[in-house]
Amino acid sequence: MKEKIHTIPVNDAFDAKSECPVCSMYRDLERRALDFVLGPSYMEDDIRTKTNELGFCGTHLKMLLSEKNRLGLAMILKTHLDQQLKASEKYTKVRIKPRNLLKDESSEVSSWARLQEKTCYICAKIDNLFPQYADTVVYLWQHEPEFREKYSTCKGFCGPHLAVLVEAARKRLKGEELQRFYDETMRLYRDGIRRVRDDLEWFANKFDYRFRDEPWKESKDAIERAAVKTNSLL
Fold first, then answer.
1. Which residue range forms the structural domain that includes residue 38?
2. How confident is the model at residue 171 (pLDDT cuts 50, 70, 90)?
3. In the chain, where do the E strands start and end?
């Protein structure tokens, strides 16, 4: 199978044998976005304009806080707060009315303030690229026998990314080919869920004195793997 630059991350994710290769692809994009934000790009005006406008969600702000470039983060957050101050000026003279009266300008304040928790530069950057990764998975499955074999032996997928793959397949595949992809993907999903569920059961059994001297088998990290399966949590 001849590798191309857009297929390398997909193949790497399936080679890693994780509980959800699509999660691995997402984390790869996330890591690249974090590095991009705190790399030389934070000095570029067009990038700063977007980070000022969108800010960061709580999850990605926590990740940025754990990075080493504290100066870069300070500069990014400072200009973001400058923009927030400027944007809030229009609401400083609003007269608040009781909720049971007609809507007034204060409702605009609420909408503007709540919008800030729904926008994130890193999420937007990932969301712009992630569909291409899912599309590449389906393309490789359709055209590369070697990848199809790799796909058929993976450990399955989490629930959210099961949906992503099915939606991507419906856009590219038709008829019997679409049905084969769906059947294979559902088999992988169910087999993976069943395997992790059994590992969780054995993990719980190990706390029973009757099983104290039995081996842990594959269950020691069953809780973490179950978190991946249920909600794409790594």
1. 8-231
2. very high
3. none
The answer to whether residue 3 is domain-embedded is: no
Q: Residues near 138 by Cβ (< 8 Å), separated by ≥ 6?
A: 165, 168, 169, 171, 172, 173, 181
> Can you tell me the distance from the alpha carbon of 1 to that of 132, in angstroms, rounded to the nearest whole number?
19
Q: Which residues contact 112 (CB under 8 A, 6 or more apart)?
A: 87, 88, 91
Q: Of 118, 109, 133, nearest to 32 (Cα)?
A: 133
* Residue at 219 is within a domain: yes
Using CA atoms, how far apart are residues 147 and 141, in angstroms rounded to an integer? Answer: 6
For residues 204 and 169, the answer to whether their CB atoms sit within 8 Å is no
Number of structural domains the chain divides into: 1
- pLDDT digit string (tens) for 13-58? 999 999 999 999 999 999 999 999 999 888 888 999 999 999 999 9
Give per-residue pLDDT as tens, 53-109. Answer: 999 999 999 999 999 999 999 999 999 999 999 988 887 877 766 665 445 555 677
User: Residue 209 domain-assigned?
Assistant: yes
The CA radius of gyration of the chain, in Å to the nearest whole number, is: 23
159, 165 Cβ separation under 8 angstroms: no
